[in-house]
Amino acid sequence: MEKYFSVSDIQTFLACRTKWDLSSPNRQSLRHRATPRMYLTQGSALHAAIEAQERSSAGYATIGPYEAAEDFLKQERLARVEQIKRTTGFEPWGTEMAEWDEKAEFTLALIKQYFDHYGTNNPLADQGMEYIATEVPFKIDISEMTGIPGAFFVGTWDGIAKDAQDNLWLVENKTYQTKPDLKDLQVHFQTTGYAVAWQMLTGIPLVGALYNGVAKKLIAPPRRLKDGSLSADKRQQTTYDLFVAEMKRDGLSIHHPKYQDILAKLKGIKDQGDDRFFYRESFYFNEAQVENWTREFVDIVREMDNDPKIYRTVSFKGCGPQGADCWWQDICFAKHTGQDVDLLLEQKYEVGSYGTIERVDGVSAVNVSSIAELREALRYHV
Predict the structure, then answer these.
(1) Alpha carbon distance 11, 1 (integer Å)
(2) 139-148, long-range: CB < 8 A, 24+ apart
(3) In a domain, 73, yes or no
(4) Nearest by Cα to 179 from 217, 207, 222, 134
(5) Does residue 234 belong to any structural domain of this protein?
(6) CB–CB of 247/256 below 8 Å?
(7) Is residue 101 part of a domain?
(8) What is the CA angle 375-290-177, rounded to 5?
(9) Domain count across the chain
(10) pTM for the full predicted model
C-alpha cells in the first residue's frame, strides 16, 4: 500500500494532530462535500491563470489567463450549487450565491490587475527570469531514506523558472492579506521542501526561490469630491500614473500646488517599488538549509507513520474563521460536546483524495541533463 507525504500534510500534523488524522490521505482522508472557502478559490484561480499564461506563451495551449480563471470559477460555482442541492434538495436562491459571485468578480478583477501590471508575454521579466513550467506535480519514492515501505513525497511546484545564466528557480505564487517577512520566507518549510524535492527528482539544484505575491486588494481610481474635482487625500489606494492621467484628463498641470503632496507621495512609492498591491522577493538556498530540512523531514515522516498519539491543538484565536479556520472544526465540536458525529459525517463529509495525489497517479520519473530536455519533459506535465 502506498503512503503519501506532502508538505501540507506535514504542516497539518505539526499544527493539530486531530485535524491531520481527519484529513490525511494516510488516515481518515475526509473531504468536506462543500467547495472550499472563497479565499482558497481565489488562490487557485490565480494559479490557473498563471498556468494558462505560461502554457499559452510556450505554444502548448490557446486559452488565455483571464479565460482560464473564468472557466475555473464557473466550475467552482457549479460545484457549490450542486453541493447546496445535495444538502437541501433545492436549487440555491440567488441571495445564497450573491456573496460568492461578488467575490468571484473581485478575483477576476485581481487577476486582470496582475496581468495588466506584469504583462502576458513574460510576467517574470522584471526579475530577469522566465517560466519553464507551472503547476508541476511530483511523486518521489522515499521508502529507502525513511525506512517506510511504499512511502512517497508528493506535491506540486507552483512554477520553475530560469534566469539569464540558466540558473533554475522555484516560484511560489501566492495571494496574501499581509505582506510576509523575508526571514520567514527563507526558512519556510514548504519553500525549502519543494527545492529539496526538485533536487531529489532531477539531480539539478535550485539556486533560490522567488516569492510572487499578489495582495488581495484592487488599485482604486483617484477619488473625486462632490464637486467633481480630484481629491488630494494622500491615503488613496491609487497609483502615480493613474493620478497623473486623471489630472491630464481634467486639463490640470502636474505642478498644480493643490496636488503636490499626493503626487510626491505616489511618485516616491513608484520609484521605491510599489508593494501595496504586488510583492516580489527572491532569496537563495544554501547547503545547510537543505540538509537541515531533509533531516527534519525524515524524522517527522517517521513519527507520522509510527502510530502517533492523536490530540487537538486549539490555536490562540480558536478554530473558527477568525482563528485557524479549520475545515474540520465541526467534527471536533460535535465530538467534544456529545453530539452525533456519525450523522454529521454522513451529511457533510466523504472520503476522497486531493488534486496532487490524482495528478501524480501513474507518473514516472524522467531523467534530464539540460534545460532543453527539461522543457520537453515538462511540456507533458498536464
Answers:
(1) 23
(2) 139/4, 139/360, 139/363, 140/197, 140/200, 140/201, 140/365, 142/5, 142/301, 145/298, 146/298, 146/301, 146/302, 146/305, 147/302, 148/3, 148/301, 148/302, 148/305
(3) no
(4) 217
(5) yes
(6) yes
(7) no
(8) 80
(9) 1
(10) 0.87
Contacts of 39 by beta carbon, 8 Å cutoff, 6+ apart: 175, 216
Q: Which residue has the cell 498641470?
A: 253
Kind and range of the H or E run holding 363: none
Which cell numbers in the block locate residue 114? 496582475
Are 68 and 62 in contact by the 8 Å Cβ rule? The answer is no
Q: How far apart are CA 163 and CA 284, in angstroms?
A: 13
Grid cell locating 306: 509510527
pLDDT tens series, the chain, 382 aa:
889 999 999 999 999 999 999 999 999 999 887 766 776 788 999 999 999 999 888 887 778 999 999 999 999 999 888 888 877 888 888 888 998 999 999 999 999 999 999 999 999 999 999 999 999 889 999 999 999 999 999 999 999 999 999 999 999 999 998 888 888 888 889 999 999 999 998 888 999 999 999 999 999 999 999 999 999 999 999 999 999 999 999 999 999 999 999 999 999 999 988 889 999 999 999 999 999 999 999 999 999 999 999 999 998 889 988 888 898 999 999 999 999 999 999 888 888 766 666 666 656 656 666 667 766 766 655 4
Helix (H, G, I), strand (E, B) or coil at 176: strand
Residue 264 and residue 240 in contact, taking contact as beta carbons nearer than 8 Å: no
Flag whether 248 is in a domain.
yes
Residues sharing a CB contact under 8 Å with residue 185, sequence separation 6 or more, in sequence order: 191, 209, 211, 281, 283
Rounded CA separation 107/320 (Å): 23
Domain with 270 in it:
219-276
